Amino acid sequence: MNSIPYILGFLCGFVVVALVALLLRYVFKKKNGVLCGEYDERQKAIQGRGYKYAYFTMLISVVAGALFDVWTGVKWIELFPFAVLCLWLSLCVFVTYCISKDAYVSFQAKRKVLILIFAVSALMNLGIALMEIICGDGIITGGCLNLTSANLFTGAASLQIALALCIRAIYDRVQGECE
User: Fold this and answer.
1) Exposure of 12 by Cβ count < 10 A (0-12 exposed, 13-18 middle, 19+ buried)?
2) What is the C-alpha separation between 105 and 110, in angstroms, rounded?
3) How far is CA 131 from the centre of its chain?
4) What angle is formed at CA 62 by the lines to CA 58 and CA 66, rounded to 5 degrees?
5) Alpha-carbon dihedral sign for residues 162, 167, 171, 174
6) pTM score, whole prediction
7) pLDDT tens, 63-107?
8) Full DSSP string of the chain
9) CA torsion, points 110, 163, 96, 83, in degrees to nearest 10?
10) How confident is residue 21, by pLDDT bands cut at 50, 70 and 90?
11) pLDDT tens profile 124-170
12) Alpha carbon distance, N-terminus to C-terminus of the chain
């Protein structure tokens, strides 16, 4: 069981990250047009299908994890990292689907900045996980994946999204040169 100071520290960190994210969203939206949310009808329809696929991914991953636990009795992951894993699986399905159908980035948004944001997030989270694996308790505690694995999942998912955005940018550039 985690101590009260640990829980309070985690909550304070969560609040600080949320406030910084809101501030960055405001700054980027005003200055760079990175997060402009103006989508056409086609993009909104594709996003709706993406939400549906993400919902079913979340549903399937949660049920599969629960069934695995009930049927085998093997505790392979703690609750918080499992929730983060299911969240990122779902978000990666949504984001990758929308990127592949050209409905994730609005027409006014700057894709390079989004790629940079996801790449930096990936490097930070993978770095935190690596340092915790090397210098800390590792990734496995008592035979199951611990809190460190949440950083690992976040880093891997951010890297996947950055790569999907890069691949789409390259595809769009090649398509533009062919026309």
Assistant:
1) exposed
2) 8
3) 20
4) 170
5) positive
6) 0.82
7) 999 999 999 999 999 999 999 999 999 999 999 999 999 998 876
8) ---HHHHHHHHHHHHHHHHHHHHHHHHHHHHT-TT-----HHHHHHHHHHHHHHHHHHHHHHHHHHHHHHHH----B-HHHHHHHHHHHHHHHHHHHHHHTT-SS-TTS-HHHHHHHHHHHHHHHHHHHHHHHHHSS-SEETTEE-THHHHHHHHHHHHHHHHHHHHHHHHHHHHHHH-
9) -110
10) confident
11) 999 988 998 898 878 888 889 988 899 899 999 999 999 999 999 99
12) 61
Residue 35: pLDDT over 70? no
Structure-token pair, residue 138? 């590792």
Quick one: how far is CA 108 from the chain centroid? 22
For residues 118 and 162, is the Cβ–Cβ distance under 8 A? yes
* Rounded Cα distance, 83 and 80, in Å: 5
Name the phi and psi angles at 8, rounded to 5: -65, -40
How is residue 57 written in tokens?
Answer: 């991914």
C-alpha to C-alpha distance for 44 and 174, rounded to whole angstroms: 25
